[in-house]
Amino acid sequence: MTAKHHDHEHGHGSELSEMQLRVRALETVLTEKGYVDPAALDRIVEAYETRIGPHIGAAIVAKAWSDPSFKQALLADANKAIATLGLEQKVGDHLVAVENTPTTHNMIVCTLCSCYPWDVLGLPPVWYKSTPYRSRAVKEPRAVLADFGVTLPAGTAIRVWDSTAETRFMVLPMRPEGTEGWSEEQLASLVTRDSMIGTGLAKAASEFSAGGET
Amino acid sequence: MNGIHDMGGMDGFGKVEPELDEPPFHAAWEGRALALNRVVPVTGDWNIDVGRYWIETLPPAEYLTSSYYRKWMLRLERLCLARGLVTEAELAAGHAAALGQPGGQPGRKVVHAAEVDGMLMRRNYDRPAAAPARFKVGQRVKAKNMHPVSHTRLPRFARGHTGTVERIQGCHVYPDASVAEGVERGEWLYTVTFDGRELWGPDSDPTLQVSIEAFEPYLEAA
Hints:
Radius of gyration of chain A: 19 Å
Order of helices and strands of chain A: HHHHHHEEHHHEEHH
Order of helices and strands of chain B: HHHHHHEEHEHEE
Structural class of chain B: alpha+beta
Mean pLDDT of chain B: 96
Oligomer: heterodimer
Number of domains of chain A: 2
CATH superfamily of the largest domain in chain A: Nitrile hydratase alpha /Thiocyanate hydrolase gamma
CATH class of the largest domain in chain A: Alpha Beta
Structural class of chain A: mainly alpha
C-alpha cells in the first residue's frame, strides 16, 4: 500500500522531490541498521488515514448533547467520561473538554508549535499548523473567525486556549436548534471538525444529510 | 529560547486559509515522515520536549519557509545525527554503512508493528510532586519575565503579565528540565487566564480571554 504510494507521488516542485528523497534516505538507513520496522510505519500511516479522525470527537459531542449526565462528566473529567464509552480507538490522557454557550465561545490554538487533540480529531489541518493561525488566534480571534466565515454576536465573549503543555483541549459546540429527539448518529453528522476546534459552529439541522456523511 | 516558533501575537502572516476536504496527507512522504517521527524517538530515547527543541533551533528562515512535515524531517535528521543513529555519509548515500541486526539492536528499543496501536494514543505526563501546589484556583499570578536560552513553554506574549489560575492540571513533566537537564521531572501545571486588554492593551477585543498552560516555575504570586 505504502510502497505503491511512493510510485504514485505527484511532483509539485523541488521541495517535494527533495523531501521524497530525504525521507526515503533516512527510512532506508534506519531500517537497514535495524532501528526501524517499516511495517510499524505502515501501521501508523494507516491508522491516521483510516481510523483516527474527527468522527471520534463527533461521537463524544453527540453523546454529550444527548445525555446530560455524560456531558457533566465530560466537562468535569473528559478522560474518565470517555473511558465509559468503550470506544474502539482509545483516547489518551490529559484531555479537557470546554463548552460553548450563548455567552462564551471557545477556540483552541497552539502558538508555540501545533499541539492538537489528535486522539479525538485526527491529524491537524494545515491551517491549524500555519503561521497565520498560530500568530493571530490569541490576539484577534474574531478576525480569524471571519476567515472561516463565522461571525459571533458582539456580546459573545471569546475564550482562547493556548495548548502550551501536554493538556489537550476540545470544544463542545452548542447543539443546533431543531434537533430534539435526534439519534446520536444523526447528531454526530452535524459535528464538524472545526466546531470542535472552535473555528466553526455545528451544522444547522437543515444541513443534515441522510447517511450521516459530513 | 526566544525563537521564531514563539509567534503568538505577531502580525503580518496574512489570512488563515482553510482547505475544503483536506486529505490526511498531501503527499505519501508526509505519512512516512509522520510515522518515522513517532517511532524513532523511542529508539533514540528522546522525549517530546527534546523533539520540539530541535525544531525550534532550526534557522528561523528555514522554519518559516518549511512545511510542517519538512520541519519534522529536518529535526529528525539532526537528532538522528546528534544521537549517533545515522552518519552524514549514510544519509548522503541513502544506505547504511553496515547492516544491523534484523529485528533489533542491543540496547535500543525498536517499535514493531504489533506495538503501534498501543502507542498511538496520548501517553501520561503525570509525575510525582515534590511539594504541594503553590498556587490555588482563583489566585492572581504573574508570568515571570524570563528569557531562558534553552527550551521553555512560556510564550513571550504572556511574560510579565498578570492573570488568574483557572485550573490545576496536575504535576506534569517539566519541558524546560527535559531539555536543559536531560531529566523528566514533575512540576505543577496550571491553566492561567489573562484578559485580552492585559495582554494586548486598550485596543484589544474587550471580551477576549486567553489562557496558557503554565508550569509553576513560570509563575509568581501577583
